[in-house]
Amino acid sequence: MRKSTTTVVILIVLAAFIMFFPMFLLPDAEFMGSDDRGSEMVGEITGGKYEPWFEPVYKKLMGGDMPAELETFFFCIQTGIGVGIIAFCFGYLAARKKYGGDEIKQASIKTTRERLD
């Protein structure tokens, strides 16, 4: 295998190990989301007397909680935008490396230095 292929395989195995190791180490643990933990902690600290500062705008417009399908839809849009930005950055870096963007930049710096001398 090439060096880069070996590195990718090692990183994938390491990521899988990090992901599955806690489940085998703590089989009876509850892996809840941070929203649940935050709500529980606020309830413990305030003794159940917590009142939100404001009500979300969508609750007023919709007359209640947002349907789960709509919440999932907004999460998917957010995920798509984030993936698009990351893919653009990786594509830009790959194209710059492939087409010599750094070499062009270095050549312009060299030309500028020659003019100043």
Brief account:
With 117 residues, the protein is an all-alpha fold.
Polypeptide structure, described:
The protein contains five helices and no strands. The protein has two domains: 1-51, no CATH class; 67-117. The radius of gyration is 25 Å and the shape is extended. It is 76% helix and 0% strand. With 117 residues, it is an all-alpha fold. The model has no long low-confidence stretch (mean pLDDT 81). The chain has helices at 3-25, 34-46, 57-62, 68-98, 101-116.
How are the secondary structure elements laid out?
Elements: H1 3-25, H2 34-46, H3 57-62, H4 68-98, H5 101-116
Helix fraction, binned, reads: over 70%
What profile does the largest beta sheet have? none
User: What does the radius of gyration come to?
Assistant: 25 Å
Global morphology: extended
Amino- and carboxy-terminal Cα gap: 49 Å
- Say how many strands there are: 0
Count structural domains: 2
Tally of helical runs:
5
Model regions low in confidence, pLDDT < 50 over at least 5 residues? none
Task: Please state the oligomeric state of the protein chains shown.
Answer: single chain
How big a fraction of the residues is strand? under 5%
Mean pLDDT: 81
Backbone structural class: mainly alpha
One letter per element, helices H and strands E, the order comes to HHHHH
Observed structural traits:
117 residues; extended; mainly alpha; 2 domains
